[in-house]
Design goal:
90 residues
Length: 90
């Protein structure tokens, strides 16, 4: 019986709390001005991805593979890797 008496009180308290929370006047939100436009953010992220990929290639080829790190960026190196994977003999 005691729980039945508490439920209406809780409901009334919730209603009162919601009424207090409601703003009396709504302000018009000012549009948010972004420092960097979205298109510029996308370009920056793509550039960072390319830089990270090339640095990873150079570290992997130069340090792990014990080759010249700049050779990892040459087309002839990649052509040789493609030929090995496909199975063409040159």
């Amino acid at each position: 019986m005691a729980t039945e008496e508490k439920n209406p009180d809780k409901k009334q308290l919730r209603k009162q709390h919601k009424e207090k929370k409601k703003p009396k006047e709504k302000r018009a939100k000012q549009p948010r001005r972004r420092i960097l436009p979205i298109w510029l953010r996308i370009i920056i992220v793509l550039l960072l991805i390319i830089i990270a990929l090339s640095v990873g290639l150079m570290i992997g080829y130069g340090v792990v593979g014990e080759g010249d790190p700049l050779d990892a960026l040459k087309w002839s190196t990649w052509q040789q890797i493609i030929d090995v994977v496909i199975g063409e003999s040159g």
